[in-house]
Fold these 2 entries.
Entry 1:
Amino acid sequence: MNQREKERYLRDYAILKSQGKPFFPYAVAKDSAMAALVLAVIITLSIVLGAELGPKADPTTTTYVPRPEWYFFFLFEVLRVVRPPEFVPFATIGVPTLCMILLFLLPFYDRSPERRPERRPIATAAGIITIAAMAYLTYMGANAGSPNAVDMKPPSSLTGAALTQWNAGRLVVGQSGCLACHRIGENGNDGPGPQLTHVASRLPAAAIAQTLRNPTAPMPSFQSLADSQPEKFRNLVAFLGQLR
Amino acid sequence: MPRLKFPAPPIPPAFQPKPKRPGTGNGKVKPADQAAEAGIHVVDWIDERTSLSGGLRWLMFRKVPRGTNWFYTLGSATLFAFLSQAVTGVFLAMFYDPSATHAYESVRYITNEAFLGQFVRGMHRWGSTVMVILVFLHMARTFFFGAYKYPRELNWVIGVVLLILTMTMAFTGYLLPFDQRSYWATIVGVNINGTGPLIGPYLSDFLRAGPEFGALTLSRFYSIHMLLVPGLIAALIGAHLYLVAKLGTTAPPWIEAEEDPAAELHKAEV
Ligand code: HEM
């Protein structure tokens, strides 16, 4: 932007600003509405999804598959896909550092006075491609064998309501973090808890429910789940009761 | 008589309070009026010694340009998410114990026993997700609107630092519950840092508080997570918002500046 373009921008901006409305109360009202929405979303997420706590950190386990928080999935995916060791540092540190530097210096190399997205095709395209790439990597990272989903086929004898309940229970197992300590079929870790793949042939459903309410440490108690969401708890027990 | 007078709020005339008709109320002063008077006196007292009112007026009654829309609330929504993290974080810090032996127990206590503990922990945990999403949306908004161009380059640069600091918060906070997930993910994260060029090894030694992941690592992460980075973020948000108020927010790029039609007409007549 040369001096003339700068002055032109400032003049146009002064006009637009003088035709605007005062920050208080107009912008403040919108901002407050948005803040209320943000608070509502956070509270809803907290109530619905809660805060799980897996088993205590144990430096001696070797089978544990580390999972980052979802917004680092894209990095995780890069790490997973890039195999040759000499490329790994380049992919995990080099590329993000480069992206950060490009982002940092953006106002210093994009100096055209144009602001409308449709008249800045390179910038707009670069932005959209970046978003698409991040979304794709995050999606791939999220689906790379999520440790929180129990991936297995229902017993063929189940139909109708029983099948629905089985599936609902399968989801509860995933949400409750059981796989951090137990193996169910192909999913989860080998310890510290015993395999649950055939737990129903060892324990009747009532005993399983009793274990969930009143387990031996280090397994956490799921009494609070039974109290607050009895429906979920019943589904959970029904699912475990089918693991023969 | 108070010296402070606020400009009338811009609400439709029908809703504006009507001035009292002279001769009503028999000149009696109602308690409500007295309370309002006392309040104004306190404000006056403070203002006489600080002259804050000028700054507040500059901040609150500056105009936002024509065409400002809901996309412009993303920045303040991020700010709000940050404040929510700060408040819930204070409550978590009351119970949290950053030692390798007690950290897990204290988080278990928060989750299962402390009053509303699981709820507050959930708010902090999901609040971080919400804040990260909002930072990215806000950045996308300023990018596509070309808001990083003259004269707001510096605000963009401060914003990028805020983005990095926000991600640092997410990374250091993840270790604190000290369960398997957080432990192993953090080991991987620190090791990735260590492969970086030049400062990489030093950075990961700094994070681990030594060459090995040890007893001091957790307290180091904790102090980074709850003192160092939030302090930096708060200071930089201050600078960011000062520039926003000083320079004004952009108008949406597709809004053309045209002189007020009434003013044009007026010029033509003269
Ligand atoms: C902790 C994170 C952040 C907070 C609390 C924050 C807050 C705000 C607020 C309240 C505004 C006023 C206008 C609006 O809401 O759109 C603003 C404007 C702005 N922000 Fe941020 N921001 C943050 C991060 C970022 C990031 C990551 C960037 C970009 C890299 C950025 C770049 C900008 C720019 C360029 C403006 C001027 C926009 C305009 O004038 O239209 N900010 N910020």
Entry 2:
Amino acid sequence: MPTPHQERHFFEIRKPVSRPQAILSAIGIWAVFFGVWSLAAHSGWVNALLVPPPEQVFSTTWDFFAERGFASDVLISITRVLVSFAMACAVAIPLGVMMGTFPSVEAIFNPFIGAWRYLPAPSFIPILLMWFGTGEAPKLALLFIGVVFFLITLIMDHTKNVRKELIETALTLGASRRVTVTQVVLPAVLPDIFTAMRQMLAMAWTYLVIAEIVASTTGIGAMMMRARRFLKTDEILSGIIVIGALGLTFDLLFGLLHRWLFPYRKETR
Amino acid sequence: MSEALLHLDGISKVFPVAGGKSVKAVDRVSFEVEENRICVLLGPSGCGKSTVLRMIAGLEDPSDGAVTLHGKPVVGPARDRGMVFQAYTSFDWLSVRRNVEFGMKVNGVPRTERRARAAHFIELVGLTKFADAYPSQLSGGMRQRVAIARTLANGPELLLMDEPFGALDAETRWHMQEMMIDIAWQENTTMVIVTHDIEEAIFLADKIIFLSSHPGRLKEVIVPEFKHGNRINDKEHIVQLPGYAEMEQKIMRLMREEGARE
Ligand SMILES: Nc1ncnc2c1ncn2[C@@H]1O[C@H](COP(=O)(O)OP(=O)(O)OP(=O)(O)O)[C@@H](O)[C@H]1O
Ligand SMILES: [Mg+2]
């Protein structure tokens, strides 16, 4: 007698889907998206000037890199993100860990940082332009301001979640407070710091585009604003695709780095 | 006869609680622990066992009274009083070997000596095959053995354990209890172990300190005379000894009295 099988429905509550089904579903939703886009562009439902068909956007994207030296704009944008993000991390990691470890340090900085967090970073653009002129400084400053306060708070919270027993174990083993922070608290929280950095890097890309659209002649955002002046919708959409692809790539790289640096966290992830 | 290594002299602990009030968790507890002996702190839940142990460890300051080790008052945590917690405390980013070496490393023990001592204590807790594994690859019982090896390898005068086997299943639990008896023999360790498991207390203890609840007071000091000073490392054997059942009953009665007072 064959073993009776329960019938499988499409709507199974919290049952994992098979890998083929997952892949098929993912392809499916994108196929629908490009299908609708293509149909809309070709059928004349929408103004072709405003919505160029997908294949035109992709060929423009290719053209950008191959013929028009778009790579240098992209490189400028990437550099801006990485430099300002590195500065933000250099401040946020030590400060966040200190605040999460020592209530006395938290008592000093938290009332200050807590307030800054609620100020939308773009509101600083006019004053940053006045202070720093039109060079790289105001863009880097905007990205820094947009990221650093959230990053500090996230890292502080993660540090507070390091279990008390781990710290007390170190102390009863004879570790000094400094050793306890550097050799127990820091390594314990490092995987979570990486996760916080990964989330905040996505935010850095958002502020980059704002900075470049508002106040720049170089970079991806500036290119898109130039394209708008000449009604080049395909170029604007190419810019969006490139920004999306970059964000995704950096996120994947961070994911890989996380798995490589913290293999012992694999089981829990 | 062995002399007392640790003295608790009328220690009390008052915790501040919400609303500006305070609660007395431990009230004038005094006892002593002799060298190379296993002392068990037993009592109903919430009676202040952990608080007493934490005061010995220096993780909590007594509100009154004093803890002295070798006649010197205890101030703050230090390597002479190693502590094993109920919750897992393995450093996940370090291999078993490096976990066990941690205390020695921060105390500046030279590398070769560190290696040798770590190997010895890893062997003692039966984890030699897993020396290079990471804690996330180990079972709960194995992780607790790492914590014990790590603490012992650091050479403390006193091993403090707060319900170290509380999170383990029954079988692993008695394996660990037997292991602790063997370790106490081989390594001449002085231990203070907190538990609320009566069987565990009788099996491990050379002396049981029974605390009453709210506030934690010394209710009775119980010495399992029926062991005649022997350490028995076989759980099956001990429950058959004459006197075991009486002792268990006596402690159960104490527990029940305390429970009724709640
Ligand atoms: N940090 C603290 N702040 C306030 N009250 C506390 C604190 N630590 C413990 N207490 C209180 O002190 C009493 C004794 O707690 P303790 O943890 O020492 O008991 P225990 O005997 O170890 O209990 P259990 O068997 O549940 O582990 C309890 O009433 C507890 O609520
Ligand atoms: Mg307790």
